[in-house]
Recover the amino acids of this structure.
């Protein structure tokens, strides 16, 4: 191994070992965007203060995410002797002080908050991590360090096998590295699945200089946060991946383009890059190998199409983030019109694994056609919003039932959407489709970059389409008539339908629009109506009901429903009246009534007083419409 | 050459050419609402769909390039349907009632729309009706009857639109008509390098914005109108003619507002100018013009021009018929000749043919040489050039400018004085040329320059000469470090030196020409004259030079008679006032009743340059044709005709037509021969031979300036209209930027004057009173007055002192 790298690793191992064996208990709080949203910084502060106040001798540190996002803040507690580590969840600020007293002062465990035993034998009903239903069947390779290491400490990464892949890469020729990546079968994780090795080879064989690498961390799909988990939990993995790509392609400069709404990931990557520079892992003559590579962390422009690779490059180039016209492709003319390779965070992150363990090991994780493991984030009307890493091929049902914990109480699966707003929706009947690229392609959509959203019977398909097409409209860069104007037309029709103005010709118009939008420049416009296309295929009857009967089977389309008083005697009515944001619930001499013109259908009253109000169809037959007086 | 098959027909086209352009050139209709010929495709409108055999689906013809063997269809049912579907999306956000209507031809603007009685906005009531590209496109792709979005909420008719910007005199922007094709933005950025227009927002909020989104005149827009030319709708229109520009005739002629000689197409209605668009075929201007070229025709209202001949009856000038006026003019001049000397003064916008006639009349009838108000400056420049080259005619070609690799500009600010030359310099710089700018004003060109040498005000010429010295001597000097770095090792073959001698100060002009000449010699040696272009003041200065009118200057003192052709010497010749005594018989042939005309015995009304037929000799000795575009007002005649009639009345025989005049010029100067069969618009470069020598001659020391005061800088500004300035018209500069005393902000603070304060500027003898405006271009310690401001007073300051300095008094109350 490269001597400089070897000594870096040795020193890092020594310090990591010393830290692990310093005889102090360790409490590590997960600090990532999900945990911060639930007060993890407070939890950490309280733990630190308590420890200081009580004079407890313990190491308090931070870790990244374990993927148990629905149970944040998560905390690991490792005993002084290092024989036992337990992962806790829901350590919210209000529980933090008692929690830390119990685990550090009283030396107890807290079974009611415990998720699993990470190290040591299980007892008292706390399962070993591997046996936790959320972890069973997961293969954590990319996420091997997630939750375990301090993401702001490069030594932790180096000590746990980090940069060994890069060390191997330094001993190979660019051609050999690319062959290894090609042999692995790694396909791009940004949604397209294009073989990463081929892309690298395009850049390697490009003749113009300089060449650039770009890491696409713009992750804009609602419901996808796999890239964020990696960057916030193990940022060095991404850097190592890019270094390997640099070695393979001859690029000397790279950019990590991070979504504007990811300030923490941005900060973590900056810290990680600074540490890598400090250790001589970035910059000129890296580890004395003669390799030069500079890496710049770039904050995104806050627009979805900046995630499209050419839009991203325009944005870095200092222009409006508009997707460009292809050809030329990035490998011919990318950043500053020089050859450029763009890969997703997760694509780069796989490279260290392939180079460290070999293509054969990497691809042998399953015999699915798509190789390697893939991270997914699950959300929607499910019990557990989390992040998992699995081999391809599991049925979506398993993702829902095992990892997602099933639908929320009272919810029945209506359908799901893999792949973000440009992909389509599938009905519950397709729940046994495997996670793999082909089945979705065959259906005219894509598996996407890792987000899967499950929706229930309370979701209106018209509403979903309005949301996703509306998103596409808002995020259109404005170049193509078809895209910015076409999405506008579709939203218009959908909104009108939802307000009870549906016309018989609407479905034909929507279909014509789905045909017209394919003449857009980039995938954003071309796929902006995929949701509509698939919804028309799988949920056509729902559209027809909305149009012809002016009735919403999901009971949510604000234009098709009405709230009314169900029980004049309900004692919670005044409270419901209070919570109504528009004061639509009023008491008259005839009793309580809801003024329809004021009601915005927010549903707040129903939550406060479930028995007092009910939703009725707005356009239902008058006979079925109970008046306030009749109800009394 | 590649062979491709289009709709079954085989055509030839260059390999790699843009398919859309090839199809159009060969007569195949393809809708294209965002493409601009020559620029990179934007591919936004998505209407230029065609079917190329091979790849699945339809292709955009603007992003497809020709390849041998390509098989293309432009007329399949799929294409028609797709085009309509795409166009219908554009129409959803446009005033579309007429566009989708079968009976549009039957409607008149006053009619109520029969389809929809609430609709007021439609093509029939639009300023661009019948000359609109979107409208024509809808016709071609057969949108009549195709309207899928009726009654939608966010359709055009149901949406509140932002206000139109009508706050400036040149350009109107009505965003509600915009289809976001971004042609304007790209024209402004890629063709003009100005970047005043941006595409802002995204999704539903995508908008065209000027500058930071405020009014146009607060952006850095130069009002050249390149955006108007490319706008496919009524969103961007000229302000003066937005509603009236329905010309019955288009004439290609030459701009009269500077010596670049851009071609313009002047649209006229019943003989009066109503619109100008860039002309075609001019290798220097291409399809660009500047604000002066586009709007000079509209600087005065028709009634402000002279439509009647005038003859003095005592103290009043009384209308007269043409024959009487000519006879009277001849009588006055003949009598004056009997009394003493008669001078003939020709303005800088006279054609070569008109100048020839004036010269013949001067010689034959008055035994003198015709001259011009430009003579002092032209002679000073010619003297400087002759000393170094043995000739005053430089062989440099403006066509070479845009492709030059090294460019040096010695100027006050050619962005303002010779705008299209500045544009070509920018073209070169954007393409990678090393640009060195020498000038005290902070020109827009400085932003494109590798080096900007900023001498003390009015010392441009000396700075250029010093730079030449350093280049030749291999020495260094801190102030020139960047310039030397940019120029050392420059390839002489691809080097261009431009000099725009100052229009009001012969001394400064001579120094600028001399310095630039030395610099050209330092850079290009023996062949320097082939790489130097002089941009003289006024459109036909070089024609007047070639005809010998610059050679001499009358003694204004004691003139018995004065014949003035298309000029107001009170504006341009500080000494002229002495000539306008009652004893001097003054005959004016002009289209404006300016100060000189008011003092004249006879005024023969003529139509100025846009009525003229003839030729100009532009800066780089390119002869451009003028075709009579406008009809002279009222009884006025064309200038050539007036001169011919006067000659006849004086008993002098002259060529009867401009063609004959040109042949006579060619007989005298054979290099003008090819101009005789010149096509309008194209221009022909005269065969200027290389100068017989190229020798650096050092300059004398610059004149000293009084210490502790402000130096006066004056040059031709971009916006003041020559015609209106001659009338001292309060709207001669419609933006009111250059009818002001312009000062560096720091000096304003020092002098405790604020924007808009009215101040007196005086050298102790002359005084001008005007409001102050802050100007980042002006260096500290200087005052800028436009050369045409306040009746041309700047020239008088420079006549009084070669390096004038002025004081600024405390603000006076209005
Ligand atoms: C509208 C749009 C948004 C996109 N957003 C992302 C994104 O956020 N992250 C990403 O990796 N790829 C995104 N892509 C895909 C990228 O264009 C590109 O294919 C990808 O970064 C390539 O990386 P890979 O080969 O590693 O998958 C987007 C594409 C489109 C059309
Ligand atoms: S399809 Fe949409 S996002 Fe893509 S270039 Fe066109 S307008 Fe922009
Ligand atoms: S801009 Fe053109 S298409 Fe639009 S209303 Fe005016 S004439 Fe009609
Ligand atoms: S103003 Fe005219 S040229 Fe500019 S984008 Fe709008 S329609 Fe196009
Ligand atoms: S650059 Fe000169 S010739 Fe050309 S349009 Fe402007 S003023 Fe006229
Ligand atoms: S001309 Fe091709 S897309 Fe507009």
């Amino acid at each position: 191994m490269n001597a400089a790298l070897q000594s870096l690793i040795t020193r890092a191992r020594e310090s990591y070992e010393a830290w692990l064996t310093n005889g102090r208990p360790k409490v590590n709080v997960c600090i990532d965007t999900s945990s911060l949203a639930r007060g993890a910084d407070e939890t950490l502060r309280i733990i630190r203060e308590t420890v200081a106040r009580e004079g407890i001798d313990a190491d308090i540190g931070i870790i990244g995410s374990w993927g148990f996002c629905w149970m944040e803040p998560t905390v690991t507690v490792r005993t002084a002797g290092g024989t036992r580590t337990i992962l806790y969840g829901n350590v919210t600020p209000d529980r933090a002080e008692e929690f830390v007293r119990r685990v550090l002062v009283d030396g107890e465990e807290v079974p009611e908050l415990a998720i699993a035993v990470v190290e040591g034998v299980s007892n008292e009903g706390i399962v070993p991590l591997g046996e936790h239903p959320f972890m069973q069947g997961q293969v954590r390779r990319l996420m091997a360090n997630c939750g375990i290491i301090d993401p702001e400490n490069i030594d932790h990464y180096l000590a746990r096998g980090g940069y060994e892949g890069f060390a191997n890469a330094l001993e190979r020729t660019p051609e050999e590295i690319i062959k290894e990546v090609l042999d692995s079968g790694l396909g791009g994780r940004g949604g397209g699945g294009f073989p990463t090795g081929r892309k690298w080879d395009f850049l390697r064989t490009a003749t113009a200089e300089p060449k650039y690498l770009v890491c696409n961390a713009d992750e804009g799909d609602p419901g996808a946060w796999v890239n964020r988990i990696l960057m916030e939990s193990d940022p060095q993995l991404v850097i190592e991946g890019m270094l390997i790509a640099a070695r393979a392609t001859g690029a000397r400069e790279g950019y990590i383009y991070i979504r504007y709404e990811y300030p923490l990931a941005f900060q973590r990557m900056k810290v990680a890059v600074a540490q890598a520079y400090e250790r001589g892992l970035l910059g000129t003559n890296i580890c004395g190998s003669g390799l030069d590579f500079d890496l710049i962390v770039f904050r995104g422009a806050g627009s979805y199409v900046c995630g499209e690779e050419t839009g991203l490059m325009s944005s870095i180039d200092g222009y409006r983030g508009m997707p460009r016209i292809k050809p030329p492709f990035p490998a011919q003319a990318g950043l500053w019109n020089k050859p450029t390779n763009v890969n997703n965070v997760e694509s780069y992150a796989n490279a260290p694994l392939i180079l460290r363990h070999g293509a054969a090991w990497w691809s042998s994780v399953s015999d699915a056609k798509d190789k390697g493991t893939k991270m997914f984030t699950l959300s929607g009307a499910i019990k557990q919003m989390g992040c998992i890493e699995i081999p391809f091929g599991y049925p979506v049902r398993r993702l829902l039932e095992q990892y997602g914990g099933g639908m929320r109480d009272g919810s029945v699966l209506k359908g799901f959407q893999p792949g973000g707003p440009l992909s389509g929706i599938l009905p519950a009947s397709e729940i046994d489709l495997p996670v793999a690229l082909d089945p979705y392609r065959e259906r005219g959509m894509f598996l996407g970059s890792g987000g899967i959203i499950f929706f229930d019977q309370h979701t209106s398909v018209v509403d979903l389409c309005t949301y996703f097409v509306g998103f596409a409209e808002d995020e259109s860069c404005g170049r193509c008539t078809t895209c910015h104007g076409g999405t506008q037309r579709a939203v218009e029709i959908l909104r009108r339908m939802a307000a009870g103005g549906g016309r018989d010709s609407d479905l034909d118009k929507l279909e014509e629009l789905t045909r017209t939008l394919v003449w857009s420049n980039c995938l954003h416009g071309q796929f902006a109506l995929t949701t509509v296309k698939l919804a028309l295929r799988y949920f056509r009857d729902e559209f027809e009901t909305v149009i012809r009967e002016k009735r919403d089977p999901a009971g949510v389309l604000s234009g098709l429903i009405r709230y009314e008083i169900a029980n004049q005697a309900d004692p919670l009515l005044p409270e419901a009246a209070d919570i109504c944001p528009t004061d639509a619930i009023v008491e008259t001499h005839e009793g309580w009534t809801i003024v329809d013109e004021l009601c915005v259908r927010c549903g707040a009253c129903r939550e406060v007083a479930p028995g007092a109000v009910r939703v009725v169809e707005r356009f239902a037959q008058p006979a079925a419409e109970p008046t306030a007086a009749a109800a009394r | 050459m590649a062979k491709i098959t289009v709709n079954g027909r085989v055509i030839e086209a260059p390999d790699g050419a843009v398919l859309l352009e090839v199809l159009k050139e060969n007569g195949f209709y393809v809708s294209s609402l965002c493409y601009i010929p020559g620029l990179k495709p934007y591919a936004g409108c998505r209407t230029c769909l065609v079917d190329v055999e091979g790849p699945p689906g339809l292709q955009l013809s603007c992003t497809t390039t020709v390849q041998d063997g390509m098989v293309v269809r432009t007329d399949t049912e799929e294409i028609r349907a797709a085009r309509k579907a795409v166009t219908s999306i554009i129409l959803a956000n446009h005033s579309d009632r007429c566009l989708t209507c079968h009976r549009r031809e039957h409607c008149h603007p006053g009619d109520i729309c029969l389809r929809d009685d609430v609709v007021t906005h439609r093509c029939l009531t639009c300023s661009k009706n019948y000359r609109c590209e979107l409208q024509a496109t809808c016709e071609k792709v057969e949108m009549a009857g195709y309207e899928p979005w009726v009654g939608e909420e966010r359709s055009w008719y149901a949406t509140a639109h932002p206000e139109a910007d009508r706050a400036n005199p040149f350009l109107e922007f009505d965003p509600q008509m915009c289809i976001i094709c971004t042609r304007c933005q790209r024209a402004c950025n890629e063709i003009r390098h100005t970047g005043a227009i941006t595409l802002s927002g995204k999704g539903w909020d995508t908008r065209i914005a000027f500058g930071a989104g405020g009014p146009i005149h607060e952006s850095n827009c130069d009002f050249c109108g390149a955006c108007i030319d490319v706008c496919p709708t009524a969103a961007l229109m000229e302000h003066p003619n937005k509603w009236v520009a329905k010309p019955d005739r288009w004439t290609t002629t030459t701009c009269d507002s500077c010596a670049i000689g851009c071609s313009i197409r002047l649209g006229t209605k019943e003989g009066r100018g109503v619109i100008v668009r860039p002309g075609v075929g001019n290798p220097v201007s291409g399809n660009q013009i500047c604000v002066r070229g586009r709007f000079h025709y509209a600087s005065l209202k028709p009634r402000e021009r002279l439509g009647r001949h005038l003859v003095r009856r005592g103290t009043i000038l009384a209308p007269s018929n043409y024959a009487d006026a000519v006879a009277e003019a001849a009588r006055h001049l003949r009598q004056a000749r009997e009394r003493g000397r008669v001078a003939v003064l020709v303005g800088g916008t006279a054609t070569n043919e008109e100048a020839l006639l004036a010269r013949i009349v001067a010689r034959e009838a008055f035994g003198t040489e015709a001259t011009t108000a430009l003579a002092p400056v032209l002679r000073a420049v010619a003297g400087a050039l002759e000393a170094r080259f043995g000739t005053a005619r430089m062989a440099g070609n403006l066509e070479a400018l845009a492709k030059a690799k090294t460019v040096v500009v010695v100027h006050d600010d050619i962005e303002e004085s010779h705008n299209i030359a500045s544009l070509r310099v920018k073209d070169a710089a954007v393409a990678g040329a090393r640009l060195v700018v020498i000038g005290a004003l902070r020109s827009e060109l400085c932003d494109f320059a590798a080096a900007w040498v900023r001498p003390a005000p009015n010392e441009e010429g000396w700075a250029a000469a010093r730079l030449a010295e350093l280049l030749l001597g291999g020495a260094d000097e801190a102030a020139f470090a960047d310039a030397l770095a940019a120029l050392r090792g420059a390839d002489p073959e691809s080097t261009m030196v431009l000099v725009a001698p100052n229009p009001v100060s012969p001394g400064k002009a001579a120094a600028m020409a001399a310095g630039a000449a030395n610099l050209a010699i330092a850079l290009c040696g023996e062949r320097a004259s082939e790489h130097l272009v002089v941009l003289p003041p006024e459109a036909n200065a070089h024609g007047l030079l070639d005809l010998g009118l610059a050679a001499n200057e009358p003694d204004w003192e004691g003139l018995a008679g004065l014949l003035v052709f298309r000029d107001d010497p009170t504006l341009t010749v500080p000494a002229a006032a002495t000539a306008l005594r009652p004893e001097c018989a003054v005959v004016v042939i002009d289209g404006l009743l300016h100060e000189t005309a008011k003092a004249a015995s006879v005024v023969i009304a003529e139509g100025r340059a846009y009525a003229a037929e003839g030729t100009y000799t532009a800066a780089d000795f390119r002869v451009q044709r003028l075709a009579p575009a406008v009809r002279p007002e009222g009884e006025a005649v064309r200038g050539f005709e007036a001169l011919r009639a006067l000659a006849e009345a004086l008993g002098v025989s002259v060529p009867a037509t401009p063609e004959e005049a040109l042949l006579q010029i060619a007989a005298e100067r054979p290099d003008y021969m090819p101009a005789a069969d010149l096509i309008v618009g194209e221009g022909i470069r005269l065969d200027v031979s290389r100068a017989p020598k190229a020798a650096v001659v050092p300059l004398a020391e610059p004149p000293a300036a009084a210490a502790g005061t402000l130096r006066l800088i004056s040059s031709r500004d971009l916006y003041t209209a020559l015609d209106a300035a001659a009338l001292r018209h309060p709207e001669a500069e419609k933006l009111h930027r250059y009818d002001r005393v312009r000062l560096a902000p720091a000096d304003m603070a020092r002098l405790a004057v604020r924007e808009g304060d009215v101040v007196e500027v005086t050298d102790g003898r002359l005084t001008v009173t005007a409001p102050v405006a802050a100007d980042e271009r002006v260096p500290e310690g200087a005052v800028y007055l436009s050369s045409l401001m306040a009746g041309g007073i700047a020239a008088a300051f420079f006549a009084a002192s070669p390096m004038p300095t002025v004081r600024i008094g405390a603000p006076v109350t209005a």
